[in-house]
Design goal:
Helices cover 57% and strands 10% of the residues. By secondary structure, the chain is an alpha+beta fold. It folds into two domains: 398 residues, Outer membrane efflux proteins (OEP) (Up-down Bundle), CATH 1.20.1600.10; 77 residues, Outer membrane efflux proteins (OEP), CATH 2.20.200.10. Strands 1-2-3-4 form a four-stranded antiparallel β-sheet, with no helix packed on it. The protein is elongated and about 135 Å long. The protein starts with a helix and ends with a helix.
Length: 501
């Protein structure tokens, strides 16, 4: 008898170790050996990685360094994403709770009166009686087929995907702030250029008026000079309007009202930070969106095991016990009651429901795998796009700077010849227009190069690493209760601060 019991217990343990989910493998993606746009970047060395977190410091701008940390503490979009991560952790903890027994306690004390004319009356002697009970119920589902374990695994993987989504949003907001700020500084440079241009055009206009008053030139030169001046002034006003919109956008990103926020104009020197790209295979670990897609594949894989387990019987152990009495004193051995026994559920006819659910789970798994491959391919494209932009814009900037020098020389010669009366003012106007266009294009190339550098850092993951994902334990750790952000203006805690708590 003892041997049979041991064999039965061993068989039970073997059944509880079953797992009907497919063996998990990360979807295969062809990874290039090297980036096509390799020069002038070099693979990152262990001591030459992107800064973990404060990657924007590579641009050496104090104002940007002050603005970026405010994303973590005040941006409302990031706060909403933190809340979604908390939701995912709570759901994961809920799934893990099914692995443990459920125990509930209850108590009831009541006085009752039965009708004298009640059919099948309990007792003709008792019209008034008590019904008092203290008891508990316990149930535990034996996870023979891994349904509960796979549900918990899917919940943990989904929570980890949500954590990666949080980092994706954080990185996107940081990159958006950097690009908006650098665009604002590009507008400052354009404003300074147009301010200087308006001053130069004013001098040229004054010159034509004096020559017209001296009857040296016709009013045609004056009208041409006036047109140039007014056009430049209108361009300056338009550029100032564009700068105001950029400033307002930065205010929203750092969680401040646009009416109370301002950034003083400043022309910053061009900075081309060294950006170590690493090798392409590193990208699979350095981008949080790729990590999120991979975790969703794992969650879908576990969900297949849950769907397949529905074909098999479900066994639950149930226990109900307590004390019952018609009196207030319930502590009498004769008042005890209990019920113990297993409950077995076996699908017999479901009209194809279980098969449909299994097919759906497999389809979700295929979709998650295809999404993962697509995100990886787009990540490589993103890196190549930004690297190509940086290289080609650098070449274009060199050519355009030469063009600015040539246009400057042309204007100087045209003005000299005009003052000598050797040419018409039309030559001056043409030279002014060409110089302004060349200078604006050169500044535009410079700004676009910096924006492409931010884009490359974002495409490389901003220094993030898949090792930053929460562990299975942290993925099911409930977040602390937070204040109602709809009724307060307190800063929003970032996810990393929550984890540290």
């Amino acid at each position: 008898m003892s041997r049979n019991r041991l064999l039965a217990f061993a068989a039970l343990l073997a059944l509880t170790a079953c797992n009907l989910a497919p063996p998990y493998r990360v979807p295969l993606v062809a990874v290039p050996v090297a980036y096509k746009e390799a020069a002038p970047w070099k693979p990152a060395r262990p001591a030459d990685e992107l800064s973990r977190g404060a990657w924007w410091e590579r641009f050496g701008d104090e104002t940007l360094n002050e603005l970026e940390p405010q994303i973590d503490t005040a941006n409302q979009d990031l706060a909403a994403t933190v809340a979604r991560y908390d939701e995912a952790r709570a759901l994961a903890a809920e799934a893990v709770s099914t692995l443990y027994p459920f125990v509930d306690a209850s108590a009831q004390i009541s006085t009752n009166k039965q009708s004298r004319n009640r059919p099948l009356r309990i007792s003709p002697l008792f019209t008034y009686y008590g019904a008092n009970q203290i008891g508990f119920t316990a149930s535990y589902e034996i996870d023979f087929w891994g349904k509960l374990r796979n549900t918990a695994a899917a919940g943990r993987a989904t929570a980890q995907a949500s954590a990666a989504d949080l980092e994706t949003i954080r990185l996107s907001l940081q990159a958006l702030l950097a690009t908006t700020y650098l665009s604002l500084r590009g507008a400052d440079a354009q404003d300074q250029l147009l301010t200087n241009t308006v001053a130069a055009y004013q001098k040229a206009f004054d010159l034509t008026e004096r020559r017209f008053e001296g009857k040296i030139v016709s009013s045609l030169d004056v009208s041409r000079a006036r047109t140039q001046l007014r056009t430049a002034q209108a361009s300056l006003a338009n550029e100032l309007a564009a700068r105001a919109l950029l400033e307002h956008a930065i205010a929203v990103l750092v969680g401040k009202p646009a009416s109370d926020f301002s950034i003083p104009p400043k022309v910053i020197p061009f900075t081309a930070p060294d950006i170590p790209t690493g090798v392409p295979s590193d990208l699979l670990q350095r981008r949080p969106d790729i990590a999120s897609a991979e975790r969703l594949v794992k969650a879908a894989n576990a969900s297949v095991g849950v769907a397949r387990a529905a074909y098999f019987p479900s066994l639950t152990l149930n226990l109900i016990g307590g004390l019952q009495s018609t009196k207030l004193s319930l502590f009498n051995a004769y008042d005890t009651f209990w019920t113990l026994g297993p409950g077995l559920t076996l699908p017999v006819f479901e009209g194809g429901l279980i098969k449909a659910q299994e097919s759906y789970a497999y389809a979700v798994l295929r979709e998650a795998g295809d999404n993962y491959r697509s995100i990886v391919l787009k990540a490589f494209q993103d890196v190549e796009d930004q690297a190509a932009l940086i290289r080609l814009l650098a070449e274009a900037s060199t050519d355009e700077e030469d063009g600015v020098k040539a246009a400057q020389h042309t204007l100087e010669v045209a003005l000299t010849l005009y003052q000598m009366g050797a040419t018409s003012y039309l030559e001056v106007v043409t030279a002014q227009t060409e110089l302004l266009l060349a200078q604006q294009t050169a500044l535009d190339f410079r700004t676009r190069r910096q924006l492409a550098m931010v884009g490359l850092i974002r495409a490389l993951g901003g220094g993030w690493d898949a090792k930053d994902l929460p562990s299975d334990k942290d993925a099911t750790k409930l977040a602390p209760n937070r204040i109602d952000y709809f009724q307060t203006s307190q800063p929003v805690p970032a996810a990393r601060e929550v984890e540290r708590r």
